[in-house]
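Researcher: Here's the sequence for the chain we discussed earlier.
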Amino acid sequence: MSSKKLLPVSRPTRVAVALALALSHPMPALSADVVLPRIDVVGDDGQAVKNIPGAVNIVTREELESRHPMSTEAALKNVPGISIKPEEESAIVANIGMRGLSAADYKTLILEDGVPVAPGLFVGNGRYYNPRIQRMESIEVLKGAASLRYGPSTIGGVINYQTKTPEPGASVAGRLGSFGYREATVEAGGRSESGQALGGVFYTKATSDGFQSKGFDMEDLMLKGGMAIGNSQWIGLKLTHYKNDANISYRGHFLDAWESANDNPAPDDWFLTERQSVDLNHEWQIDADARLNTLLYWSTVFRDYWRFDTVGGTPTVGTGANKRWNYGNTVKGNNRSFDRLGIDSRLNLRHNSFGMASEAEFGVRLMEEEMVDQGITATRANPRSGTMTKDIIDSALSLALFAQNRFIISDKLGITPGLRIERYTQKRHERMDVGATAGQNARTSNVEYLPGIGATYQATPAAQFFGGVYKAFSPALNGDALDGLQDQQLDAERSVNLEVGVRGRSDRLSYEATVFRMQFDNQIIPANSNSNFQNTNGGKTLHQGLEAAVGYGFANGFNINANLTWIPTAKFVGNRYNANGTLNTPDGNRVTYTPELVTNLSLGYKSGPLETALRINHTGSQFTDVTNTQALVENTTGFFTGKLPSYATADLTANYAVSRQFSVFGAVKNLTDKRYVASLRQGVYAGPERSFEMGAKYKF
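Model: Thanks. This is the structure I predict for it:
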């Protein structure tokens, strides 16, 4: 189908009517081949990147096959502009920061084949589901004014995981590793003789005892297929099932014990996740200058989090290296389920309406979300059932409209203005039949107008300059906007983003460098003493810095790739006060979990069937609380704060193709066995110690 895609722009959708009209359009003879339609945030050719007035990074299929990352976070670790807050090595929950935005927050839109993967963009936490890397073939990372084509929460940018396309035949792969890690993956696909249809199945089963006994049992299934409907239409269907029972918790180890601890600090806490999804893609190449893409998507997620309470008067027992949490008999269930239904459509046009060559894109997205938020108090004897203490339904209905036009001023210069409008209504319903708020409802609504403009200039064949300015936003979630079943009249969190950069490729050299500035406005903060119980609009942050990447391949098989993210400024602007009027965050304090410097260096070698690489990562020091506490300390409520020291780790990987069908690989992660504090919450999350992996893949 690639020969039919005459428009280089990327692809989302219209509405259910557009899908019905497209499917009913009379078609000529069937096409000779088919490629499944999907949404590409960047695009699958070199020209697509050159048309984007913003920074672009792509983690290719070759890179994923070379590195064998265990999680999507590990795959993104070497992308400039991104910082990761590790909690456990398989990254069951997402902790991704971009360009000085906290890795503990959610201001970057994450997609899979163009579909939002966060359980709730408007109604709840976006971290509860993190796609599995085993079914991905590449990852697109998009920043700058082009991010306006997607939303909401594109202040940091857009990350789009691209799932594998079925291939004829079958393969089996396995991996064993430290901490009892066991993984098996089966892939099988087929194609009709005419090439008109294809389909396949991808299944992964992985279990692990886990570093520090934070084990998990995961399965991930994807069914994917599609067919051509004539010479100008294609349809694709993807179904997924994911289940993960993880023995993880918010609690970590104590300061005197974390370096040598190998036990789980919360052995009875469980984070249980399950997700199903359906994506239906349709593409209609109307003519040589017009294409319509339509995507209908549905997903359901549940996340049950069962945590043991500590004994109230004595939450800890022991001292020094023997200090541990003192768990009692009470188990708290913080259980949430999410449902999402959306339809997203785009019309891509080439035209000369303004007296010059232009490429336009018009889009509309309608999406409905619902979250059921329940609290349950159980006991150790019956840890999965008990007395319900909370039962709330949060819902949101959103409509987004988007339009942009790329004016091709010359063969060197392109200018792209655009506008996105997001309108959304949020509702909350209290289902508990007792208490002051029993049966009550609340609602709020908001409209955001998000303009932007970007440009590209091809100065030489090996150097393209790009830049842009745009407005982005992240909505106040239902829990903030409708706190106490009252409309808190909270506006969205907004940012004005500016970037200027240069990129290029010449022979064996490739490079990109971008200077950026994000002026973040209206971060939602707790109320001060003048606003009674309400949360308030307010709080600004400023983020500015540089991200750069360079790669060079030598003629003798060696290659070197390096990148850095330098963010000298990621600060709060203006004093902030807590609910009783006390100064909480002084003006100029640094935003949490935003290291000033992150660097990556890869030294690789490839010769015949052998490919090997040494990869070094440096993560700078970072604060974990808004008061910018320097020393690592534990407060009276069991929360840990302080400045995390910088650390560097090294990974060594090797791949060997025994034949065209059979290959083996191995890895040593954290080669120097560096002990470091990865993050803090109720205790220390230690970075995984040195670990080993080995595996093999056979293609039938």
